[in-house]
Specification:
Length: 304
């Protein structure tokens, strides 16, 4: 039997898109329907709102709060709802954290400040201030390819001493750094980059905060269940079957292609907000080929 660390937010979570209507306005009903589909049909343990895939840089504070409250209303008794509150401004991030708490969120996702690239001591002060601003548990989000600054292993170990900083979303692509933190700190470790889902389980990860979970959350569950039950070969085979899905959804900015895929299968999504642009017909056709290769036959007509 393979052992795992506790997964305080569940094992399979998806970083949910933010649906917009035809006028580009937040589609509250669509968000509730999509959340219900992900939880009830695909079996997600939780959803992460207002992250990169949720287009947080282009949604207002009021929209973020409304999204959280509406999704909590729809599925909050059946799933853990985590919301992104990290910005490059500590005071603003603290404000978003208190708003998220009052809207009913179960946890906070806090990305490293981007653009201003603070030193490691500044990162510690930033995350600590946000964690101190509410009673909610916090997931740090380490994605230096977007933020320009990585959370060093020593920094993560120090942050893990805070009673409410209990998990990390790892999108760094550095298995060496991840292993060094896991050897020293009691953090729940979530894969934040789908291609690394199985490798991170193998070094002590507890689950996924996924993008492709919009489409294959049930298969990610099977992957995790197989691995944690000790059937590593079955987990490897499931992961191998998902490689085309991973490739297809990340050929450009992932929210562009996920929204295209959701729209194709009749789920709420809408357009992306500028400066992102919607998928071209050529991109949708290539996506359909990738997804069919990954076993998603709802795209079989387009892939011909």
């Amino acid at each position: 039997m393979t052992t795992t660390r506790p997964a305080p937010f569940g094992t399979v979570l998806t970083a949910m898109v933010t649906p917009f209507d035809d006028g580009g306005v937040l589609d509250v009903d669509g968000a509730q329907r999509l959340a219900s589909y992900l939880v009830d049909d695909l079996g997600h343990d939780g959803l992460v709102l207002n992250g990169t895939t949720g287009e947080a840089p282009t949604t207002t504070d009021a929209e973020k709060r409304q999204l959280v409250s509406s999704v909590v209303e729809a599925v909050g008794d059946r799933a853990r709802i985590v919301t992104g509150v990290g910005t490059y401004d500590t005071a603003h991030s603290m404000h978003l954290a208190t708003e998220a708490a009052s809207a009913g969120a179960h946890g906070l996702l806090v990305v490293s400040p981007y653009y201003n690239r603070p030193p490691q001591e500044g990162l510690i002060a930033h995350f600590t201030a946000i964690a101190d601003s509410t009673d909610l548990p916090v997931i740090t989000y380490d994605i230096p390819k977007r933020t320009g600054v990585a959370l060093e292993p020593d920094t993560l170990c120090r942050l893990a001493e805070h009673p409410r900083i209990i998990a990390n979303k790892d999108a760094k692509g550095d298995l060496d750094a991840a292993q060094r933190v896991l050897a020293r700190a009691d953090l729940a470790w979530y894969s934040g980059d789908d291609i690394a889902n199985l490798p991170l389980l193998s070094i002590g990860g507890c689950g996924f905060i996924s993008v492709v979970g919009h489409l294959v959350g049930d298969r990610l569950r099977d992957l995790a269940d197989a691995y944690f039950s000790g059937d590593v070969e079955q987990a490897r085979l499931i992961n191998q079957g998902l490689l085309s899905v991973y490739t297809g959804c990340f050929r450009t900015q992932a929210v562009i292609l996920i929204k295209a895929a959701l729209a194709h299968i009749g789920l709420p999504a809408g357009s992306v907000r500028a400066p992102l642009i919607d998928a071209t017909p050529e991109q949708v056709h290539r996506l359909s080929q990738d997804l069919v290769a990954g076993g998603l036959n709802v795209f079989a007509v387009d892939a011909a």
